[in-house]
Design a protein that fits this description.
The chain has 201 residues and is mainly alpha-helical. It is built from five helices and no strands.
Length: 201
Amino acid sequence: MYEKIAYIIFGVVIGKLLDLYIQRRKVSIFKATILEELEEIKYRLLLICRSYERSIQIYALNGIDSDVPLKLSNPIFRKHYSDIAIKLGASQRQSLSLIDSCVESVNSGIDKIEDAQSRTVDNLSDDALKRWGNLLKAQYINAATAYWHVNYHLSNKDLPFLDIEDSEEHRAYLSQLKSSEEHVEKLIEGARENLKRDNFE
């Protein structure tokens, strides 16, 4: 009698331990897969930045680039974030949520570019061209900032902490913003000094 009870208890304990192992294994796999997806997003953001750089150079020569970057996607994060959130630290959750917002922001920017592109082609006034250039510059900085956040998370997987103002990390973020703004101006100056529209045909 007692022996049967002991076997039942032992079986229940083994079952619970097995369930716990399987759950931890799934969480570990999901976490690793989300990090792999971030690597892909980082690469795609680099391509988006390169696309905007080209468009900015063409704008500097009073032209409008017909190409538009492809949008980002993060299906693994969207599907499995809730499965791993409870196992993450606060800074990891905040960082991943911020990156998800960055993905949405970059995609929204691409929508704005697509919408403005046709309207600007139909109205090549100085004001329209200036608005087009300002939009391109803003979306380049937006994509470069998203790239910085993704890269920062991947370089600090265990503690991607950004909250404290005037911290070393916050200063690095502000430095990146300034660097992106300066890079845009250099692109425009360099295009006007060294390039012609024929270079992009």
